[in-house]
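Students often ask why we bother encoding 3D structure as a string. The short answer is that it lets us treat folding as translation between two languages. Here is a chain of 88 residues written in the first language.
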Amino acid sequence: YMSVNPINESMLYKKGSRRESDIELFNRILQKELKGKYTFIDTNTWMYENGFSTGRLETDIDDGVHYTAKTYKRIYNYCLKRINSASV
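And here it is in the second language, the structure alphabet:
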């Protein structure tokens, strides 16, 4: 399982429609309920620690929800590393 990734709350057009704290709470509950039976890839924390950029791939609009191509590639590579290390 993989966490829900972070948003850039300050860039959202509809203020209050999504909150970073809601995502963090959801991820904590999800990880707790998995009870260690499954691998949990915490991309949310990893992204906050390593940085991320939001912005739609096909436009220059930063909507706070979608990521840049570079960020998507970094998420993918991080997940592959975690999956490969869990299967050893």
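Translate back mentally: The chain has a mean pLDDT of 87. Keep this in mind for the problem set.
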